[in-house]
Amino acid sequence: MFLTFRAEAAMRRVRVLATLLTAVAAALLLAVPASAAGAIRYAALGDSYASGTGTGQYDPASGSCNRSALAYPSLWSSAHQVASFSFVACSGATTDDLLANQASALRTTTTLVTVSIGGNDVGFGDVVTTCTIGSDQDCANAVQRAETEVRNTLPGKLDRTYAAIHGAAPSARVVVMGYPRLFATGACWLSASKRTTLNDAADLLATTIAGRAAAAHFTFVDGRSAFAGHGICAASPWINGVTWPVSDSYHPNRAGHANGYLPALDAVTG
C-alpha cells in the first residue's frame, strides 16, 4: 500500500511536470508569430528632404543621393528596434525617379513607409534659385509657373506614386512627410515680398500633398507645423539659407531633422 501511494505521488508529479512543459512549449510557439507580426520593416523613400541633404554629413556610398545618418529616417530607425531598414531616398528625386528606382525597396512584408516627394516635380529648386538672385517680379513669375504645375499635374503624379507604394507594400503604414515653409517672419536678407511668395507656394504644395495623401488613406505629417518658428532667418533656424555647398541651401539642417521631422514622425508612429 505504501508503494502504491509513492507510485501515485510520482505519477502526479509527472503529470504536473508534463502540464508545465506543455504550457511552456505553447507559449514559445505563440511567441514566434507574435514577434514576427510586431517586427518593424521600414522603407524610407523620397527626395533630398528625406535623404538628409542639408545636414552636411553624407554616406559616401550614396553618391549624389546625399543620404545621411543625421536624416530623420536614419534617426528614427536608430531609435526603434527595426527588423530591416531600406533607406533609398535620393536628392533630386521626382515621382518618376521614385517609381523607377526606389519602389523596388518595398516588400509585401514592409510595415512602415515614409515618403517625401513632389517638390522636384514642380521645379521648386529652380524657383528658389530665381527668387534668390532675381527681382521680386522674377520670383513671383517663377512661383506662378510652379503653382500651375502643383494644381494641374502634381495631383495625378502623386496619385500614381501613392498607388504604386500601396500596391508594393499593401500592409504598410505609409507616412507622407510634407515640406515646411522656408522663411520665418521678421528681419531677413531676402525681401518680404519674396518670402511671402515662397511661403504661399509652400502652403499650396502642402495642401495639395495632404489632399492626395488623404485620398490614398495615408498619414500626412505637416512640415509647416513641425518647423513653425524655425524657418530661415529665425533666431534658431532649422532650414539652411544660402550656404556651401550650394546644394545644401534651402534644406533642413541637422536640427531640422532631429527637432522638426523626427518628433513629428514619432508623434504619428507612436
From TrEMBL:
Presence of the UniProt keyword Disulfide bond in the record? yes
Q: Name one GO molecular function term.
A: triacylglycerol lipase activity
Report the SS bond pairs: C65-C90, C131-C139, C188-C233
From the UniProt record, give one GO term of the biological process aspect: triglyceride catabolic process
Give the record's keywords alphabetically: Disulfide bond, Hydrolase, Signal
Domain of life according to the entry: Bacteria
Transmembrane annotation, as ranges: none
Catalytic residues as annotated in Swiss-Prot or TrEMBL: S48, H251
Known Pfam families for this protein?
Answer: Lipase_GDSL_2
| Protein name per Swiss-Prot or TrEMBL | Hydrolase
